[in-house]
């Protein structure tokens, strides 16, 4: 199935949801209301700024479960996703940290979201939550069972805060994740949140993604100054920390940072549009 994916995606870092350590001072309904209001406000700001899509993630729930999250997290994510769906017209993604791919798919399916992010879809990673194994077989069969084939799967390779136990070969990881794993898009990151992939990794990933005919995204550390240096206009962006006060993940959105980033994105698109017209 052909899926049209957004190319410039802003990340909504939710505060602590009910049941997580950061929310213990709130009644569950209060924690949910607090997170929901923030999500709707941020979604509207990102839409107004010109982003192509948004992704909602339970960033404030650290420390994260390695795989399945508790029922209250899925309920909270569903309520928030539905509220955001009503507030904006952008494509919406779901990421349930650390790696509850089936939970993210369920939330996306019942709330009308458009895609999910999966940190480990294929292979085995040693992470700060322990060993995480990809479960592509179960996820793709569950997507079919839910009649949710229109929900795209964006999958990380050599994801941040982790080390691959499968292969150190980035190109091979992209080939495996997009081919045998069934990912609709590939994400590469730096070593941790807020750190960008190296130029060498980005070029290797772009070449491999082109050969595999799969969209490529930078999923961490992209700054406004780096947008102009992207080796291809086809590279997608998933942007979180850069848009926030002090460049810190989980901090409030910073309107000035958002304007600066989107100005760079628009300049990049204009420049590449002129280049394409000149070469045609």
| Amino- and carboxy-terminal Cα gap | 29 Å
- What structural category arises from helix and sheet content? alpha/beta
CATH topology: TIM Barrel
Which parts are unreliable, with pLDDT below 50 for 5 consecutive residues or more? none
Q: Which range does the strand content fall in?
A: 15-25%
Largest sheet: 8 strands, parallel, barrel
- The number of helices is 8
- CA-based gyration radius: 18 Å
Mean pLDDT: 93
The tally of beta strands, per DSSP, is: 11
Full CATH superfamily name: Aldolase class I
Please list the strands of the largest sheet in the order they lie side by side. Answer: 1-2-3-4-7-9-10-11
Portion in helices? 40-55%
CATH 2nd-level architecture:
Alpha-Beta Barrel
The number of domains is 1
User: How are helices and strands ordered from N to C?
Assistant: EHEHEHEEEHEEHEHEHEH
Overall form: globular
CATH class: Alpha Beta
Give the topology.
Blueprint lengths: L7 E6 L14 H22 L3 E5 L13 H17 L4 E4 L5 H11 L3 E4 L5 E4 L2 E4 L2 H10 L6 E5 L5 E3 L5 H9 L6 E4 L10 H14 L3 E3 L5 H4 L8 E4 L15 H25 L1
Parallel strand pairs: 1-2, 1-11, 2-3, 3-4, 4-7, 7-9, 9-10, 10-11
Antiparallel strand pairs: 5-6, 5-8
């Amino acid at each position: 199935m052909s899926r049209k994916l957004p190319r410039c995606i802003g990340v909504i870092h939710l505060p602590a949801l009910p049941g997580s350590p950061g929310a213990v001072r709130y009644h569950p309904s209060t924690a949910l209301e607090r997170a929901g209001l923030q999500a709707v406000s941020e979604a509207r700001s990102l839409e107004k700024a010109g982003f192509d899509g948004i992704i909602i993630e339970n960033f404030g729930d650290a420390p994260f479960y390695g795989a399945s999250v508790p029922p209250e997290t899925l309920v909270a994510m569903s309520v928030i996703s539905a509220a955001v769906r009503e507030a904006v017209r952008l494509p919406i993604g779901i990421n349930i940290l650390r790696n509850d791919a089936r939970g993210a798919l369920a939330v996306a399916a019942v709330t009308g979201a458009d895609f999910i992010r999966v940190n480990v879809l294929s292979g085995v990673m040693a992470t700060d939550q322990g060993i995480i194994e990809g479960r592509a077989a179960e996820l793709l069969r569950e997507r079919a069972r839910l009649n949710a084939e229109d929900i795209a799967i964006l999958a990380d390779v050599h994801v941040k805060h982790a080390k691959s136990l499968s292969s150190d070969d980035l190109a091979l990881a992209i080939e495996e994740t997009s081919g045998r794993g069934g990912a609709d898009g590939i994400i590469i990151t730096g070593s941790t949140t807020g750190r960008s992939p190296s130029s060498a990794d980005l070029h290797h990933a772009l070449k491999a993604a082109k050969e595999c005919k799969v969209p490529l995204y930078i999923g961490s550390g992209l700054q406004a100054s780096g947008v102009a240096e992207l080796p291809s206009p086809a590279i997608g962006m998933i942007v979180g920390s850069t848009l926030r006060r002090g460049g810190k993940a989980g901090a409030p959105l910073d309107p000035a940072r958002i304007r600066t980033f989107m100005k760079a994105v628009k300049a990049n698109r204009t420049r590449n549009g002129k280049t394409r017209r000149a070469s045609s």
